[in-house]
Amino acid sequence: MKKEQIEQLVNEGKMLPLMEEFYTIQGEGYHKGTAAYFIRIGGCDVGCHWCDVKESWDAEKHPPTVTEKIVDNATKYSDTVVITGGEPLTWDMTELTTQLKAKGAKLHIETSGAYQLSGVWDWICLSPKKLKLPTQEVYDKANELKVIVFNKHDLKFAEEQAAKVNKDCILYLQPEWSVRNKIIPLIVDYVMQNPKWKVSLQTHKYLNIP
Ligand SMILES: C[S@@+](CC[C@H](N)C(=O)[O-])C[C@H]1O[C@@H](n2cnc3c(N)ncnc32)[C@H](O)[C@@H]1O
Ligand SMILES: Nc1nc2[nH]cc(C(=O)O)c2c(=O)[nH]1
Ligand code: SF4
Ligand SMILES: [Mg+2]
User: Fold this and answer.
1) Atom of ligand 1 at shortest distance to CA of 56?
2) Domain 3-207 adopts which CATH fold?
3) Radical SAM core domain spans which residues (predicted)?
4) pLDDT 10s digits, 18-69
5) If residue 140 lies in a helix (H) or strand (E), which one and from where to where?
6) Which ipTM value was assigned to this complex?
């Protein structure tokens, strides 16, 4: 296929730069502990300095893959499918999610919300970033807000973000992994003082699974 043809299909969400797919246990947030098939789509220009998948950023490094192929593979493993990245909302998620839904999958997204919301979702995990704030639509539709805490100032950011989400949105503070030993006591204290928040840990990293 010609380069322009591939570009066109990627623009339409009929092909997507697939980085990796794996069957694992959701490690974070509300669904932690639940078996789920993860689809990691390449491409992100938000630029979090502590991002734990920087290899995902450059979409060019990940092969444009026919969306139907991604779908056929995913539904073999699990009825819960998590779409992550990279930033999945870099791309039009309509095709991918419509096809997965037609096969009966429960669809979850991990997103910074920095780009226009596309796709049909059963669960939206919004993890907002200061560098590129979420769109209003994703604040309105998020099921959980998961703020990464790297330093004390992030607690202030967390409150600002909590003020923007819908009233049913479940609120989580998650320690940035590299500073977890320093940050966990801060989060524990904060959640006890402000019990509208819950703690989220990257439990998959403790379990040594993907
Ligand atoms: C790699 S991101 C991909 C999805 C999307 N770009 C986002 O940021 O939500 C998946 C989740 O991991 C979180 N995350 C990334 N790096 C982390 C780190 N070093 N410590 C804790 N959480 C991290 C993100 O905030 C997000 O909730
Ligand atoms: N087990 C596991 N759970 C996760 N929850 C969110 C993840 C992500 O990178 O989006 C992730 C991940 O990479 N692995
Ligand atoms: S938005 Fe997500 S994928 Fe992009 S740099 Fe930040 S944590 Fe990494
Ligand atoms: Mg991860």
Assistant:
1) 1
2) TIM Barrel (3.20.20)
3) 31-210
4) 999 999 999 999 999 999 999 999 999 999 999 999 999 999 999 999 999 9
5) helix 136-141
6) 0.99
Identify whether the C-beta of residue 92 lies closer than 8 Å to the C-beta of residue 9.
no
Q: Angle at CA 86, nearest 5°, toward 83 and 18? A: 65
Q: Of 35, 41, 107, which is closest to residue 78 (Cα–Cα)?
A: 35
Q: C-alpha distances in angstroms, 88 versus 91, 126, 153, 159, 181?
A: 6, 12, 27, 25, 30
Please indicate whether residue 84, judged by its CB atom, sits closer than 6 Å to ligand 2: yes
Angstrom distance (rounded) from CA 82 to CA 201: 17
Q: Is 53 in the pocket of ligand 1 (CB under 6 A)?
A: yes
pLDDT digits (tens, 9 = 90+) for 88-114: 999 999 999 999 999 999 999 999 999
Q: What share of the chain is helix, strand, coil (3-state, %, to 5)?
A: 35, 25, 40
Q: What is the pTM of this model?
A: 0.99
- How many angstroms separate the Cα of 69 from the Cα of each of 7, 25, 30, 91, 93? 17, 23, 29, 17, 15
Ligand nearest to the CA of 132: 3
